[in-house]
Amino acid sequence: MTPEKVIEVIGIYRQLFVGRNIGKVDYPHDEMLDGLMHDLEHCHDMLDKIAEFVREGRMEKAFRWLGFVQGVLWASRVYSLTDLKNHNRPLEKKED
To answer: Quick one: residue 77, left, alpha or beta (phi over 0 = left, psi -120 to 50 = alpha)?
Structure first.
């Protein structure tokens, strides 16, 4: 995935979270999720940090965090694995 594609994908998820009025929570890293929507709120919060990693050129970390977000979205039954895979596909090139 290119940096531009990562930014595009987190834009898709940001729209989802905003559209569903899901806030942002920096959940404590040493606690288990409580199942009260904090998982999705934590993922929403992670999107800004992923974009920062991309800007800093820290793509491996951006990929790990994006994979975590996508895993939570799948486990939360928000997107199917096919949907998530399609989000990651390269941009289609337009023919002139």
So the answer is: left
For 18-68, the pLDDT digits (tens) are 999 998 888 777 777 776 678 899 999 999 999 999 999 999 999 999 999
Residue 11 near residue 86 (C-beta atoms within 8 A): no
**96 belongs to a structural domain:** no
pTM, 2 dp: 0.84
Residue 74 sits in which domain range?
3-28+39-88
How many domains would you assign to the chain?
1
Reported as a pLDDT band with limits 50, 70 and 90, residue 91 is low
Q: For residue 94, is it within any domain?
A: no
